[in-house]
């Protein structure tokens, strides 16, 4: 399956990594990146693995905990997974 990121999701991802690298350290940010991409790989193999959040139109939005501090929101169809948002709990 192809993975498509929205601009909003990518912007939040980059901002959170910069925050993690600055406040916690580069090793923690590398671990977060690895966990995030492992989570995306899991979703690619089994798109219904995430928790159902809501249905808007014909899209079923789901969330998946990719890191203890990060939840990824996405929807999928037969060919693509669309990553639409991330919620990070460590930033204040």
In brief:
The protein has 92 residues and is of the alpha+beta class.
Mean of all residue-level pLDDT scores: 90
Q: Which structural category fits the helices and strands?
A: alpha+beta
Globally, the shape reads elongated
Total helices: the number is 2
Q: Please mark out the parts with pLDDT under 50 across 5 or more consecutive residues, or reply none.
A: none
Gyration radius, in Å? 13 Å
How do the strands line up in the largest sheet? Answer: 1-5-4-3-2
N- to C-terminal separation?
Answer: 34 Å
Helix content: 40-55%
Question: What is the makeup of the main sheet?
Answer: 5 strands, mixed
The arrangement of helices and strands along the chain is: EHHEEEE
> What's the number of extended β-strand segments?
5
Which range does the strand content fall in?
35-45%
